[in-house]
Design goal:
single chain, alpha/beta, Rossmann fold, 2 domains, 7-stranded mixed sheet, 5-stranded parallel sheet, about 45% helix, elongated, disordered N terminus
């Protein structure tokens, strides 16, 4: 072989990997955000998810993210999910029990990674945590017993509370199960609990106003798309009607709620990017164990506590992961 021919052959060989990379197909990721596009928390979770993907080597050159932002209307959410499924992405990511339920009804083949879902077995999404099978896997935010724990923390911060209304959505199986947890814990804490199915903001205000007619009332607000989108207004109403209120996630306390007790949804969105990466690289969602949280944060809003006339014990403040002043 002549020297010039050998050099030419080497040059061609060194280019092969570049040619192969150039021909790799663009991967498609569908993302359903159960919150308005202008919502700061939804944007924060989306940024955390994208940052997680970038860290793992996914960028504009090798993947395309199809974002869909939904309102609090169930039909709007179903339409957005149907649109994403119609795009046939390689994997779908979403947060919350109701969006996951919508996707589960829409496809049994496209891999789905979820975050912030309570007890996926009890909710009927999977049958096994270590090997979920099917096309669904992801990250839970706890078990249904968290409802009782949230009530316990509310009682510690507002010991005079003797009646609690639980704002929930009876279309969401996790809400029904969490309500049962709260109902079971209430007598042990000297509290009478009442479920309040609140499908609209007008209904929420009506429930809060009626509940405030008698003294020593409080609220537990279970997470849902409608609560997420109107959390600031709900927090303001709770102060107006003098109702100490507990939530599940930090951003509710940051939006004016008295307290929250639960996981960090932004961190779960970043972790979810790792599962999306593994699926894009060939692993099956049914083989990826569902991850359960090991850390729950107590966040207290002192400004709201002062507005409600509550004196938070120093010992409880010391236990808080964050105190908003």
């Amino acid at each position: 072989m002549r020297r010039r021919e050998f050099i030419t052959l080497l040059g061609s060989a060194s280019a092969w990997p570049l040619v192969v990379r150039a021909r790799e197909p663009m991967r498609h990721i569908g993302v359903l955000h159960p919150g308005g596009e202008s919502d700061a928390n939804s944007q924060q979770r989306q940024a955390a998810f994208v940052d997680g993907l970038r860290f793992l080597g996914w960028n504009e050159g090798n993947c395309l993210i199809h974002d869909r932002w939904t309102s609090d209307e169930a039909e709007h959410m179903r339409l957005a999910a149907s649109e994403l499924v119609g795009l046939r992405p390689d994997v779908i990511f979403t947060s919350g029990g109701y969006p996951l339920l919508v996707f589960m009804r829409a496809t049994r083949t496209i891999p789905i990674v979820f975050a912030t879902v309570y007890d996926p077995i009890g909710s009927g999404f999977v049958t096994n945590l270590s090997r979920p099978g099917g096309n669904i896997t992801g990250f839970t935010c706890g078990e249904f017993s968290m409802g009782g724990k949230i009530l316990e923390v509310l009682k510690q911060i507002a010991p005079k509370v003797g009646r609690v209304a639980v704002l929930l959505n009876l279309e969401q199986p996790p809400h029904v199960a969490m309500w049962r947890s709260i109902e079971a814990a209430a007598p042990l804490l000297g509290v009478h609990a009442t479920p309040a199915d609140s499908p609209s903001t007008d209904e929420i205000e009506r429930v809060m106003k009626a509940f405030a007619h008698e003294p020593n009332g409080g609220l537990i607000v279970l997470p849902s798309p409608i609560i997420h989108l109107h959390r600031e207004a709900i927090a303001a109403l709770a102060v107006r009607y003098r109702l100490p209120t507990a939530y599940a996630f930090r951003f509710y306390a940051a939006s004016g709620g008295l307290l929250s007790y639960g996981i960090d949804p932004t961190d779960q969105a970043r972790q979810a990017a790792g599962y999306v990466d593994r699926i894009l690289k060939g692993e099956q969602p049914g083989d990826l164990p569902i991850q359960q949280p090991t850390k729950f944060d107590l966040v207290i809003n002192l400004k709201t506590a002062k507005a409600l006339g509550l004196d938070i014990p120093t010992s409880l403040l010391a236990l808080a992961e964050e105190v908003i002043e």
